[in-house]
Specification:
about 80 residues
Length: about 80
């Protein structure tokens, strides 16, 4: 019985340790330093090359601007 309790405590402690390690890596990663800008259906501000250039010229720590395509469509 003590072996079973010890095994459960061991597995729980491994789970908490892994969770803590992953959270520390995620919160210090560059993922918290990025901003995704998407174009809405209203298109009040079109995302074109001129707008991207204006984002690059911002003086508040913009290091890099890159495009990421996320095509979506209806197959019907």
């Amino acid at each position: 019985m003590s072996v079973g309790i010890g095994a459960i405590l061991f597995l729980v402690s491994i789970g908490y340790g892994l969770q803590n390690a992953l959270l520390e890596r995620i919160t210090t990663a560059d993922s918290l330093l990025t901003l995704d800008v998407t174009e809405t259906k209203l298109s009040l501000i079109p995302l074109n090359n001129d707008y991207v250039e204006s984002i690059k010229k911002l003086e508040r720590g913009v290091k890099e601007v890159s495009f990421a395509a996320s095509p979506s469509g209806n197959i019907w």
